[in-house]
Write a structure and sequence with these properties.
Order of helices and strands: EEEEEEEEEEEE
Number of strands: 12
Radius of gyration: 13 Å
Strand order of the largest sheet: 2-3-4-10
CATH class: Mainly Beta
Distance between the termini: 18 Å
Number of helices: 0
CATH topology: Rieske Iron-sulfur Protein
CATH superfamily: Rieske [2Fe-2S] iron-sulphur domain
CATH architecture: 3-layer Sandwich
Shape: globular
């Protein structure tokens, strides 16, 4: 799957702020962004909205990171739904999706594309 072309890249944090195989939350304008660092996958870093649409709480960065049949995902810590890190889609309910941004690590900085 190819990522959409970003017109502008903004820096959210340094690569050293990330924890391998885990999530951290960052803030961009008025939004919380959950960043997931998976050095073993083709994309090292993924960016989703931190807001869990089922509980309406900003908790996805605290979820368990793993994969379901090769699909990298995060399990919400509250109701346990899984969200694809590649697409933001809920794997249990295809009608629900969280915002996803293209993300990259460049020169030691974590950036998301707008």
């Amino acid at each position: 799957m190819t990522q959409p072309t970003a017109t502008q890249w903004i820096t959210l944090c340094d690569r050293t702020d990330l924890i391998p195989f885990s999530g951290v939350a960052a803030k961009w304008e008025q939004q919380q962004v959950a960043l997931f660092y998976l050095p073993d996958f083709e994309n090292e870093v993924y960016a989703l909205s931190n807001n869990d649409p089922f509980s309406r709480a900003n908790v996805l960065a605290r979820g368990l990171v793993g994969d379901l049949q090769g699909e990298p995902c995060v399990a919400s810590p509250l109701y346990k739904q899984h969200f694809s890190l590649r697409t933001g889609a809920c794997l249990e309910d295809s009608s629900v999706q969280v915002t996803r941004w293209p993300a990259r690590i460049r020169e030691g900085r974590v950036e998301i594309g707008l």
